[in-house]
Write a structure and sequence with these properties.
Elements: H1 5-39, E1 42-46, E2 61-68, E3 77-80, E4 92-101, E5 107-112, E6 124-125, E7 130-138, H2 142-149, H3 151-177
Antiparallel strand pairs: 1-2, 2-7, 3-4, 4-5, 5-6
Helix pairs in contact: 2-3
Length: 194
């Protein structure tokens, strides 16, 4: 059975249209998945370490609601900046294991990663009146953000697909200019004359 070029071209065109539409729908859904929670008051953090393994894994995205510090209790998972003398310059997402009320009314917290054998060696106060508390996590999604942070992987994730789109567009333009394909005619709005 011999396939006619016009049939093959039609199939290729429909397949390309389907793939592009599917990609656009995926992009819109992912964007909505991150814009809508922000509008609902959630902050988002990508989990880049393994200290909470078993509860949520590296590459998860933690969605957190800002909570008054006085409402935080043992068992809550919070994202915070450890004290300067801890030696850590990045945010930490750990579970609160103790809360001490000081005479001056301040609350002193101690945390622990669920996968860590020991509690964190520091205690800390939260200077702000509010603190992000983990409400839920979405596994695996954060790996894309971790990859985009690496310049070499960013080229693979963003540059190559963009280059392919440009290449397909140039091929289509060349086909039109060489007369191998007619451009789509604009459709008229309103009544058609026969």
């Amino acid at each position: 059975m011999k396939v006619r070029p016009s049939t093959l071209a039609g199939f290729t065109s429909r397949l390309t249209h389907f793939v592009v539409t599917l990609a656009l729908v995926a992009v819109v859904l992912v964007a909505a998945g991150f814009i809508i929670p922000g509008l609902l008051g959630y902050e988002r953090y990508v989990i880049v370490g393994g200290s909470m393994s078993g509860t949520f894994e590296r590459g998860s995205v933690a969605f957190e609601k800002v909570t008054p510090v006085e409402e935080l209790e043992v068992g809550d998972i919070v994202t915070y900046q450890p004290p300067p003398d801890s030696g850590l310059a990045t945010l930490v997402t750990h579970r609160i294991v103790s809360v001490q009320e000081k005479r001056d009314g301040a609350r002193v917290f101690r945390t622990k990663g669920d996968a860590n054998a020991d509690v964190d060696p520091w205690t800390f106060r939260l200077p702000e009146g509010e603190q992000p508390r983990v409400e839920f996590t979405v596994p695996l999604v954060g790996h894309a953000f971790i990859a985009i942070a690496d310049p070499d992987k960013r080229i693979l994730l963003v540059g190559i697909p963009a280059g392919l789109v440009c290449l397909v567009s140039l091929v289509e333009l060349a086909r039109i200019l060489l007369g191998l394909r007619r451009p789509l005619a604009p459709t008229a709005l309103g009544p058609q004359e026969a």
